[in-house]
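Example 455, ligand NAP.
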Amino acid sequence: MLSSLASSHPCPHRLSFTLPLRPSRPRLCFRACHTNQPLTRDSTASLALSQSGPQSRPPLATLKIAIIGFGNFGQFLAKAFSQQGHTVFAHSRTDYSSIATSLDNTTFFKDPHDLCESHPDVVLLCTSILSAEKVLQSIPIQRLRRSTLFADVLSVKEFPRSIFLDLLPSDFDILCTHPMFGPESGKYGWNGLPFVYDKVRIGDSHEREVRCEAFLEIFRKEGCRMIEMSCKEHDEIAAESQFLTHTVGRVLAEMGLRPTRNYSQGYDTLFQLIENTCSDSFELYNGLFMYNKNSTDLLDRIYAAYEEVKKDICGMVQGILRRRLYGTTGIEEHEDRVARCEAFLESFKKEMPYDENASGIHFVALTIGMILSKLGLKPTSIDTKGYETLLKLVEDTSRESFDLYIALFMHTKNSNELLEQLDVSLASVRKTLYGRLHDILRRQLFDQPGIKAAL
Ligand code: NAP
């Protein structure tokens, strides 16, 4: 029912749901082993401190970092950690022993108990957003040192902050981070790429500060733009732009656009956007959808903007037709635009060798630009490369006149077909998202024995 609702387009209904979906749970109250031991140099033996004079940079250290969730992003981070000389312990649902073996200083632990007994300095949660809570609960934290630093890299921030505070004993330090790049956008290096972090709870001791700084130093050293920001602020600024970027990438991918030699206007960034967003798992996109309270509203706004663009096209095309049939539209300004549009069309005919694919890509890019222009996007302090591509598209589109857009619509033989494909792709992405949401809600409802019996 939800998925059929989602697929009926345009969708006047707004589904509303409240997140987080997890029921409240009593706080865990067991303590980690060695709880009675004070944190000493000894207990942070793997921290190999170097110089730390008042004028110098923060001291460097070699850390033992446990990556929990050794999928796409976990492995990507592990490479950088191990290349910088840190020791990586990895654990995941899937056995990635052979991948770990191929990396320097990296060991895969099938059993999380063994990993925890190796006493990492940092435990980095790197699982999907949707599995994060379950995975955190499955870590035998009683085997860790009580001074352990817990960090995460989830693309949303208030949620991991809340589960850390809820589920970890107060002795553990907490650092929430978001490297705002991925294996694709960061494959040529991390220089200048934003890294957001929030020191949620760092114990009041020099060693704990040093360890936290040593972890942050990994990203600093790679040239990341370090941005300290609260989890709340991060989500307010980034949740919507990330979800929008991934949606545009996935919709374009659904349309099956393929690069062509003749496209002129730097649309390579658009193809990069498709590559970057679609090389990430659907699970990640779904997490952005589920943990962004504005995502359903944003989907509705995209649809509404798209409908408006189509209406604008119809208005102009009717104007051209009327002029051709009756010689005048009766409205001077409109007539001017129709004439300009016809002039563009003439110049297209004369100057541009017709290439259906190139023309189609140009038309789709401008259409997306038109839709995004209606959403009123704004640059933020933590834009990803993908979001920058969207902003650039809006800027490029605003430089082109609407008359040129209509001329391109007329010039492109299959423009109507492309608009239809865009319709279908938008509906398909939305249907998949709501389908997953439906599955999750159903599982939550029917997996609880009391409710199951009542229903
Ligand atoms: P992802 O699909 O978000 O997460 C994949 C990871 O989650 C894998 O390690 C997988 O374990 C684990 N996982 C998924 N479902 C699980 C379950 N039910 N139980 C236990 N483990 C489960 O893809 P990702 O790209 O690797 O992202 C990992 C985290 O990094 C996410 O929180 C994401 O938001 C964040 N992040 C990603 C990027 C990026 O560009 N990719 C950038 C910044 C932050 P197995 O592989 O063992 O199945």
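Summary: Confidence is low (pLDDT under 50) at residues 1-60, 451-455.
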